[in-house]
Amino acid sequence: MKDFDAAAHLSRRALLTLAAGAALSTRALAQPYPSQPPRWIVPYPAGGGTDVVARMLGESMGRALGQTLIIDNKPGGGTMIAGDLLARAKPDGLTVGTVDTSTVALAQHLYKRVPYQPEKDFSYIGGTTRFPFVMVVRPTLKANTLAELIALARSEPGGLKYATPGAGGPNHLGMELFQRKAGIALLHVPYKGDAPALQDLLGGQIDMYLVNTAASLPYIKSGKLRPIALSMARRSAALPEVPTFAEAGLADFESYSWQGLAAPAGTPEPIVARLNAELNKALASDDIRKRLADLGIEPSPTTPAEFTAFVKAQSALWGEVIRAANIKLEQ
After folding, report:
1. CATH assignment of 39-130+256-325, given 3.40.190.150, 1.50.10.20, 2.40.50.140, 3.40.50.620?
2. What is the rounded distance in angstroms from the CA atom of residue 42 to the CA atom of residue 62?
3. Are 165 and 193 in contact (CB under 8 A)?
4. How many angstroms separate the CA atoms of 180 and 57, rounded?
5. Which of 5, 45, 142, 281 lies 20 to 30 angstroms, CA to CA, from 273?
6. Inter-residue contact 113 to 280 (CB < 8 Å)
7. Whole-number pLDDT of residue 251
């Protein structure tokens, strides 16, 4: 009988322990999210377009979440340093980060060693923005339309020079695709960023540049650079008079830089859904839409599933372009 009583006592203690553990777990799960300020990793330096957008959206989302989102700039490695930090972070919703074309659609095709797997290591929250590309030419180039530019390139195979802000980026790959679509050959001149490339274009050392509207708008509006065509499906509100490539005669050509928000793989779905909802609310606000438009940037809200599918499709598209052009980069 004593043995029975002892066993019963132990059973009651075990049940009480389990109940207490379950109660603690329930209370932990019931804690409001976020319980502390989340970190937003940005793969570029402070002050650039990506940083400006992250701070703009983070401020709005932080007010809705009741916590300040802390912007953490981690540039370098072709955005892979930030991508690696994000992939290895704890999946508790307290670390998110900007991912872009380079981070999750290009890196795995350009480099032998990438410290993360875009299709496995991230929970995609949603799209944030698109940076439209516009083809601009030096003012003295004898080409006022896309048809004239293509005709000039065909008359001088390999003679016309185009700039990019670096090899293997969206601008470079966009120009590789453009050459294939147009049946022309151009000479690639890579620079270290938009600023030096634009200066040489203004100086006449370079003939053309497929550049984001945010960087080129001041020069276009002042008449220092001539816009030829916009590489988006529809015209940009920032440059309403500039035709798309399709309108200018080259069908099935789109090239732009895009960005989105992601968290580490395994982040709970309710948290991903909450972050997506607040992100899309921020992107829909009149104030943020106007501030983005002033920079020539377009909001790009999506669901998590839509952004996940978009990343996969972009990886397939640009992976094929990279292989066809035989582009390989060293870290």
Report:
1. 3.40.190.150
2. 16
3. yes
4. 37
5. 45
6. no
7. 93
Secondary structure (3-state) at 8: helix
List the chain domain ranges: 39-130+256-325, 132-230
Say if residue 86's pLDDT is above 50: yes
- Mean pLDDT, the chain, as a whole number? 90
**In the 8-state DSSP scheme, what is residue 47?**
T
Query: What tokens were used for 214?
Result: 């945010």
Same fold, 39-130+256-325 and 132-230: yes
Q: What residues does 164 pair with on adjacent strands?
A: 190
Q: Could you read off the pLDDT of 207-255 as tens digits, one per residue? A: 999 999 888 999 999 999 999 999 999 999 889 999 999 999 999 899 9
**Which range, of 71-80, 81-90, 169-178, 321-330, averages the lowest pLDDT?**
321-330
Has residue 96 got a pLDDT over 60? yes
- pLDDT digits over 294-313, tens only? 888 999 999 999 999 999 99
Alpha helices, H only, the chain: 2-30, 49-65, 80-88, 101, 107-110, 146-155, 170-182, 194-203, 213-221, 269-284, 286-294, 304-325
Residue 165's closest CA among 139, 133, 117, 122?
A: 133
Q: Are 219 and 213 in contact (CB under 8 A)?
A: no
SS3 252: coil
Give the torsion sign (CA, 116, 311, 281, 242): positive
Backbone angles phi, psi at 211, to 5 degrees: -125, 155
- Taking the complete model, does pTM exceed 0.85, yes or no? no
Helix axes 269-284, 286-294, angle to 10 degrees: 70
Pairing of strands 122-137, 256-264: antiparallel
Peptide bond into 34 cis (omega under 30): yes
